[in-house]
């Protein structure tokens, strides 16, 4: 598809594949040894990385869209966006072909930061294992997250893309989270009830949720609502009674549907995510990421908002 029609998901090589050993060689022995190792092993297939099953699920959605809308270009386009050197490309291509992935666009920047290319590729979502690059991309206004591998092997749906989002500082801005951090929970509840009918400002992942919603509507238009290959989840630490209404009214004001909304009132997210088994779970707080990881969820950290200041300190 032409970039202006596609939903472009840029994935780094370390997010798509398991390159832990290769990264160790790079860090300990330098770029020349790293490139030499990759060339010597270019016929050895790389194992899946944290974004692999998410990418597979995107491609399943594409296949279903092409059945229903053979001439439509509004679908996912996966771009491999990596600061690897071109000499490493053969191993990446061999591994992509081995798994039957459709990744036609490569951007290999030979050690330079790939962030400038994200805008040129009209990127809707960028996933990387490098937190500094993700931070740079967020600063450039691009929806981005740092991928973390799950600590347990879990079976993921191969017929339905499942995407779980935290609310504040992910879909929504961090305005309410600032009040929690600076003035406490009681003041937060009071603030949310006073502002129940005032929509929250958008957060960094709102656009990607919108993209998913747009594609869902294409399936609904063909009477495929019950058989839709995309399902979205809001998994928030907010409590429904005291601060849930503002969230739901904000989504309604944006014209967005979410399939399932889970208000946990501060309870751990990990056990709920085990039940959902999302291909990816976006959250702005590292303790939620770590809790999800421990129980086998592939989590993606969104370095946005006031929680980052507290996490660093």
UniProtKB/TrEMBL annotation:
Q: Which GO terms describe its biological process?
A: adenosine metabolic process; nucleotide metabolic process
Give the UniProt entry's GO cellular component terms: cytosol
GO MF terms on file? 5'-nucleotidase activity; magnesium ion binding; nucleotide binding
Q: Return the InterPro entries for the record.
A: 5-nucleotidase (IPR010394)
Report which superkingdom the organism of origin falls in: Eukaryota
Q: Which PANTHER family match?
A: CYTOSOLIC 5'-NUCLEOTIDASE 1 FAMILY MEMBER, CYTOSOLIC 5'-NUCLEOTIDASE 1B
Q: What is this protein called?
A: 5NT1B nucleotidase
